[in-house]
Design brief:
Layout lengths: L12 E3 L2 E3 L5 E2 L2 E5 L36 H10 L4 E7 H5 L8 H16 L3 E7 L15 H6 L15 H4 L24 H16 L4 E2 L2 E2 H20 L5 E5 L31 E2 L3 H8 L4 E9 L4 E10 L14 H4 L3 E3 L5 E3 L7 E2 L2 E2 L2 H18 L6 E4 L3 H6 L11 E3 L6 H6 L7 E3 L4 E3 L2 H19 L9 E2 L8 H11 L9 H17 L2 E7 L46 E5 L1 E8 L6 E7 L7 E4 L9 E5 L3 E5 L4 E5 L4 E9 L2
Parallel strand pairs: 4-5, 4-22, 5-6, 6-9, 9-17, 17-18, 21-22
Antiparallel strand pairs: 1-2, 2-3, 3-23, 7-8, 10-11, 11-12, 13-14, 15-16, 19-20, 23-26, 24-25, 25-30, 26-29, 27-30, 28-29
Length: 664
């Protein structure tokens, strides 16, 4: 592996809403998730390959996100595009797939080498233990398969029973392409409501309360599951503890609440005073529906969809789940909640609810998922990794909907926490369409009819994330851990144009505008971000994409790499995300603005001459192909064209204005 030796990265610490380096400069992190295919084994574990998961103990994740001998290519490209931070994915399964306590040491060494190499190319890294809807066997990624057996679940029955919506079970591989009739776009996300997720997440976060008598190897199920998860974090931590570019650990990607806080028979089909949460498209499962389906009892469940005439999400029809009457429980096992007295199932299939509020109350206490369960989990993660490196930051995530509604973090948060929630334009993500003149958001019931209105909506939504950060330690950084767009927008019309020979930006107009609006909002609010995602193996094939559940959000595709000697070759809609920004400021940034059409960039900051290192502005050649002029109201300006950097050093305090303009 060729290596690019650069100046060693300064260690960062938290200074209010900012990250600060050792010189005291405020550092803005603009990064990317690496990468989308880290969710699946290498080389042929992607969802574009059929699988019954029988090899789950023998898989390997070495090679995700790319083999080490490709690191120079990919790190050089990402550096050329101006990123300075990586949210580097791993999974619980990647580390402990062989069995309890059997760590894949070869993979752990590979991951540690990736972290080290990233630092050589100028990237800060935070470790992301990723999951989506619990595991690959329940339609996503994350946890190892053997945990199902420990709980008493036969993983081979999960998909067939309807207890999870799994691409490998539903997709017709002989047919290929997009299959909305068999596996609709983003349908994996609705697995959070299905029983495989409901059972596992409830036990993971609240097994002591809701399954107190359920033990695994003599340990309560919650403690058993969390300790194995934390042990995998420790294995990574020991290997990267001395790397100055490693900032810390994400707590857990997009944690779910299972059935915590839900009434057993309640189906959320409409908002009310008691249930003000937004109604979402898909099946409106109750915990009871999930429990019955898991035992092989068919259930007719309301299916919700968007009524475009209102617009509103309403019940459309009912769908019967598990008509084949398949139980997921191993012989002699049953669900822990029945054992704990929540309900009773008779041999003839009749049932009785014993406690409607079983998942809502513990004794006289009404439970709160975030305060009672997620908060203690954050504390455990922090204590766990800080036993190895006390200076690491915690990149904390609530469940995805919380950020949109401004749900606060737990009252007690670990020191040096970062608000690392996720934000997407939900309709663009779920429908793979983008029209800059029309957009409806079911999470907020907002309709925008022009680009400037969409821009305002993005800014309002992201401002809620930033506002929540103020409640933690009197203000912490807001880093949007995931944000991005599907690149197969509008029927993948850009791919067809590319295949037909069009190498211009025109086919990518929708993607460029969508990204531009997103980054404009980040600039206006001075937010940090790591875009989802860069997938080295991405293909312009609707069955493949990022190699996972037909998602296709990668800013790079091998199918578009026509000139391997050109670092930009293979990039998608680069004009939307390769843009100028102040990556380090000799003082405090006050405002940032970039106009993609004119190329005008303006930075205002409050200079602190006690900080001796210069302000560094990334000025990409892609946006300034004929060069640029730069003016600063104070200080000395130096250019480093090879690094695409402009440096400004100020010797007097006060407000400084910097403007960059395209040369004509």
């Amino acid at each position: 592996m060729s290596m690019s030796m650069g100046t060693p990265l300064s260690r960062l610490h938290i200074d209010g809403r900012w990250f600060a380096d050792e010189a005291g400069r405020r550092v803005l992190l603009r990064g990317v998730n690496l990468g989308g295919d880290c969710k699946v084994p290498y080389p042929d574990g992607g969802t574009n390959y059929p699988s019954d998961f029988a090899d789950h103990r023998d898989v390997s994740f070495i090679g995700r996100p790319f083999p080490l001998d490709e690191a120079d290519e990919h790190f050089s490209r990402l550096r050329n595009w101006g990123f300075n931070c990586l949210r580097l994915l791993t999974t619980w399964e990647a580390i402990e797939h062989r069995g309890p306590g059997e760590f894949d040491t070869e993979y752990l060494d590979y991951y540690a080498e990736l972290c080290r190499a990233a630092g050589e190319y100028g990237f800060y890294v935070f470790v992301d233990f990723h999951q989506d809807v619990w595991s690959r066997m329940s339609g996503g990624d994350g946890a190892p398969c053997w945990l199902f057996e420990k709980i008493g679940i036969d993983y081979r029955k999960i998909a067939a029973s309807g207890s999870a919506h799994v691409m490998q079970h539903l997709y017709d591989y002989s047919r290929g392409g997009r299959q909305e009739d068999r596996y609709p776009t983003m349908s994996w996300s609705q697995n959070t409501r299905r029983p495989a997720n409901g059972i596992m997440w409830t036990l993971f976060f609240a097994g002591r309360d809701f399954a107190p008598a359920t033990t695994v190897d003599g340990v309560n199920v919650q403690d058993y599951m969390q300790e194995h998860y934390l042990a995998c974090q420790r294995e990574v931590a020991r290997r990267v503890r001395d790397l100055p570019n490693v900032l810390g650990f994400d707590t857990l990607n997009e944690p779910a609440d299972g059935w915590i806080g839900q009434a057993i028979s309640y189906r959320h089909v409409a908002e009310s005073d008691e249930h003000p949460e937004r109604v979402m498209p898909g099946l409106a499962w109750s915990p009871l529906d999930g429990l019955l389906v898991s035992h092989g009892i068919p259930r007719a469940i309301p299916n919700l969809g968007i009524d475009s005439a209102q617009p509103k999400i309403v019940p459309k029809a009912e769908r019967t789940i598990n008509s084949d009457r398949i139980s997921i429980w191993l012989e002699g096992r049953t669900d822990p909640f029945q054992e704990a007295g929540a309900w009773r199932l008779s041999r003839d299939g009749s049932y009785e609810i014993l406690r409607e509020d079983f998942f809502r109350r513990v004794g006289d206490r009404k439970v709160d998922y975030i305060d009672d369960y997620l908060g203690p989990f954050f504390a455990r993660v922090a204590d766990n990794i800080r036993e190895i490196n006390p200076n690491w930051m915690i990149f904390a995530e609530l469940d995805p909907p919380s950020g949109f509604v401004g749900r606060p973090f737990p009252a007690e948060m670990p020191p040096s926490s970062v608000n690392a929630g996720h934000w997407y334009d939900i309709v663009t993500l779920a429908t793979k369409t983008f029209n800059p003149n029309l957009s409806f958001d079911p999470l907020t019931a907002e309709m925008a009819t022009q680009s400037d209105q969409i821009q305002q909506r993005y800014r309002r939504q992201l401002a809620r994330f930033a506002e929540v950060s103020k409640s933690i330690e009197n203000g912490v950084p807001t880093l949007i851990g995931e944000c991005g767009i599907p690149f197969d927008l509008n029927g993948a019309e850009a791919y067809r144009a590319f295949a037909a020979g069009d190498r211009s930006e025109t086919p990518w107009t929708a993607q460029i505008i969508a990204l531009d609006l997103m980054y404009n909002a980040f600039d206006a609010l001075l937010l940090h971000s790591t875009q989802w995602n860069y997938t080295a193996s991405n293909r312009n094939d609707l069955a493949i994409g990022d190699g996972w559940d037909q998602e296709d959000l990668s800013i790079f595709s091998r199918d578009q790499q026509t000139d391997p000697s050109d670092l930009n070759s293979g990039g998608r809609a680069m004009a939307g995300f390769v843009r100028p920004y102040a990556r380090a400021t000799q003082g405090t940034p006050l405002s940032v603005r970039f106009d993609r059409i004119s190329g005008d960039f303006d930075l205002v900051f409050n200079a602190e001459p006690a900080i001796k290192d210069a302000t560094e502005i990334f000025v990409p050649r892609l946006q300034y192909p004929r060069g640029f002029t730069i003016e600063s109201s104070a200080g000395r300006t130096e250019l480093e064209p090879q690094k695409q950097l402009a440096k400004i050093t100020v010797s007097s305090p006060g407000e400084v204005r910097v403007s960059i303009r395209r040369s004509r």
